[in-house]
Amino acid sequence: MPACPLCEGAGGELLHQAQAWRLVLADEPEWPGLLRLIWTEHVVELSDLTEPQALELLQVLRRVERVLRDELSPDKVNVASLGNQVPHLHVHIVPRWRDDLTFPASIWTRPEPAAQAHGPLNAQTNTHANIQTNPPSNRQTNTQSRADAAAARRQSTVERLPALRRALVESLRFSH
Amino acid sequence: MPACPLCEGAGGELLHQAQAWRLVLADEPEWPGLLRLIWTEHVVELSDLTEPQALELLQVLRRVERVLRDELSPDKVNVASLGNQVPHLHVHIVPRWRDDLTFPASIWTRPEPAAQAHGPLNAQTNTHANIQTNPPSNRQTNTQSRADAAAARRQSTVERLPALRRALVESLRFSH
Known about the structure:
about 35% helix; HIT family, subunit A; homodimer; alpha+beta; about 15% strand
């Protein structure tokens, strides 16, 4: 069995360590504010947890999402347990804004490399597993200003991370 | 406020309707077996639910995931509440296989159009929000056989959908 990076490392900046789980702030420069709730035990799927364990995960998840909303006021929160690359149960909790790099696509939908370097954002909103199949209405609009807006959004989010950290640590301090 | 497609329509093939939620089999030919658990009330985020509501959602989710695993034996299950395009609370429950169209990337990571038509799969495993940043080791291997394998996987999954439907309907029949 290959080594598991979430058994061997924190997986980000540790904000709180409870017995059964930890919360980390991910080191993802393009997605500041991305949190990961990581189960301590090496289990793979949500349905591998016992019911009390799953309930604990849910309660922490809801609390974290609430703090994230209070502190960053995102337009949407994305919550996902994927684990295709690291099959150790962890939940991504991602603040999203209409002017971020890939909205309304997922954060896993790669923008054109040029967009990441302030070039055109060729919005790759794919239709797989989306309910709406219309292309985004802004695909033909000013892509340079879109990239600039995404950069500004990242910057303003980075500036709010200290407050987010403080609020999360405070909110979770009695969680064992 | 624009019309909400999940208030106005089922959002897929209805498998079970409870008072607070419904389960549908999505109409996504590239992702057979993709299920959506849709909250009846138009709420946006998980943390908009009351605690008893969230608990009910969790219990159904775990039951559905368990049936999905029993019936389809996927290599991984992906669970995600995104809602950027349709901000009405719904959870995607997606069986994944190592030989599917985009594994280990997300289903929202678009493969090259050619891959969908049995051409090369230029595996777009992006590094955003991934823990591992290494490119997939198979990027340079036989892409045609990869596309063929994905097509075969879709076909074998489609053949198992009747059993999946029956098992889900049976499992949820007493859920009001």
